[in-house]
What we know:
single chain, 2 domains, Elongation Factor Tu (Ef-tu), domain 3, mainly beta
Amino acid sequence: MLLVDAPLVARREVARGMFVLTLDAPQVAEAVRAGQFVNLGWSPGPLLRRPFSVYRTDGDRVEVILKAVGAGTAHMLQMKPGEVISCLGPLGRGFDLSAGPKTVALVSGGLGVAPMPLAARDARAAGMQVTWVHGARSADELCSEVDGDEVIWATDDGSKGFAGTAVAAVPDADLVLACGPNRMLAAVAMRWPDAQVAVETYMGCGTGVCLGCAVPLVSGGYDRACKEGPVYRAADIEWSMLPPHLSYAISA
């Protein structure tokens, strides 16, 4: 875990209202694994840092993806290149992409696209064939940047690709990795109990101290999403105790 000052390098829009911020953070870029996140803070800014899954890395640069869903993220999207963001990370436990499975399906809904570019990269490095299924409510909300040997689009309104949910569009695969709203991840758990899912709860510290990111477990008790997660075996989470619409990489 590193704490670095990361100048903002660039911003680009990849779907309606969805932006990628590029930060200069070479130490983090070198260390991060697919599914891990960074906790970002800035001055003047909110009291608590904001957690974001690492979207991509490019040399010395780290990218995160976000929408303006509250005052904090709205402020981030108004920042100019050269302004400095305090970056704590990489944090959490990422996807297990060790050799073994021959095929992997990446399933993302909305902002759940966040950890998937790195997952595609690491899966290919492990020799897997990658199918990426990305879903959203409509075509203009689909992330324009996806990567896979096969890409399947899904929209609730049928405006692009498969008409229905991303989960319903997933083909057979040896391994399933998923990220998106909790309601979507609960559906993944029903179909693929052994899938790896990246979950999100609201966080305080991001380092396991404050216990503010509790994830309810089927076996009883709670884990900390920032330490034992954010990636879990899908069937291990008690989905009925989590809010259905909260999704990974969404911060206020």
